[in-house]
From TrEMBL:
Keywords: Hydrolase, Protease, Serine protease, Signal. The lineage of its organism: Bacteria, Bacillati, Bacillota, Clostridia, Lachnospirales. GO terms for biological process: proteolysis. This is S8 family serine peptidase. The active site is at D59, H117, S267. The keyword Signal applies.
């Protein structure tokens, strides 16, 4: 059994209701809606993502067998599968589709209960029917089993992802524990953007910060969740540290083993923001985190007095 430096890192997701597999229902309230949804239609007429954009999903594992996400998986063409040789010499044997840092294997999916969360994030990002940016690539970086993981593995995953070419990381988790090591690794990759959860409790982050979202670093984006009625989602953090609010309730997403479900959680808002940034980077690969934050600060919603995500404004500035 691997010895781990454990910290408490909790993933944020609550499944609300089991749905049927009826895909004819109007399932995603937040996609086209221009009030508290993300206003995506005009952007989609220009791009549904560029395959050169690779999003690193630091999360639990991903069931990549689903037909709606299997074509978006990152493939390491420098590695020969299943020959038990580290062909590309990066220190990871047979790492074709990312890596399982939790168990230190190339098996990025273990079981439904341990890996539904990462699968859900991959679905929001790239599901052909229900995702934001189906034509980008995602790289599974499994650091959690269920809600259990370690800073130690997260740091390895960031280093691995960056070497692969990831410049956009989805971090749908948080911890109350400040880690200097995690701070430093994020700081050292200035040209990578880290989209992070503003927490799973209804707390003012100015008083009760969560990490990595509240590290004072220019390449971190701190995300909060809102509901269909524009209220702050009941388990989202709030306060001045939040850069942008995005839909975080009643989100329809892929689950393992070819199932779908409605879920709530700041985790989902994070994935929606990551997907939106992936589209912005598909249009302008050199857009900086600073520029993105500036566009977020202009994305002010008078109805709820919050900065709420508008993908059209993010991508085209109006
Ligand atoms: Ca390798
Ligand atoms: Ca190999």
């Amino acid at each position: 059994m691997k010895k781990k430096i454990l910290t408490i890192i909790c993933l944020v997701s609550i499944m609300t209701a089991c749905s049927s597999n009826n895909k004819n229902v109007n399932t995603q309230w937040w996609m086209e809606n221009t009030q508290f949804g993300i206003n995506i239609n005009n952007v989609w007429s220009q791009t549904t993502g560029n395959q050169d954009i690779i999003v690193g999903i630091i999360d639990s594992g991903v069931d990549i067998t689903n037909k709606n996400i299997k074509d978006s998986i990152y493939i390491n063409y420098n590695e020969i599968a299943d020959n038990e040789i580290d062909d590309d010499g990066n220190g990871y044997v047979d790492d074709i589709n990312g890596w399982n840092f939790y168990d230190n294997t190339n098996d990025i999916y273990t079981a439904f209960t341990s890996d539904y969360h990462g699968t859900m994030i991959a679905g929001i990002l790239t599901d052909k029917d229900y995702g934001i940016a189906p034509n980008i690539r995602y790289l599974p970086l499994k650091c959690f089993r269920g809600s259990e993981g370690s800073i130690e593995d997260v740091i390895k995953a960031i280093e691995y992802g960056y070497d692969v070419g990831v410049r956009l990381f989805n971090c749908s988790w948080d911890t109350n524990q400040y880690s200097e090591e995690l701070y430093e690794v994020i700081q050292s990759y200035q040209d990578a953007i880290f989209v992070c959860s503003g927490g799973k409790n209804y707390e003012n982050l100015d008083l009760t910060p969560v990490y990595p979202a509240c590290y004072n670093l220019s390449n971190i984006i701190c995300v909060g969740g809102i509901t269909e009625s524009g209220d702050i989602y009941e388990f989202s953090g709030y306060g001045n540290d939040i850069d942008i609010y995005a839909p975080g309730a009643d989100i329809y997403s892929l689950m393992p083993e070819n199932t779908y479900n409605y879920s709530d959680g700041t985790s989902l808002a994070v994935a929606i923001v990551t997907g939106a940034i992936a589209l912005a980077k598909s249009i302008d690969p050199l857009v900086s985190c600073e520029e993105i934050k500036e566009r977020f600060s202009e994305s002010y919603n008078d109805f709820n007095n919050l900065n709420t995500l508008d993908v059209n404004k993010l991508c085209f500035g109006n």
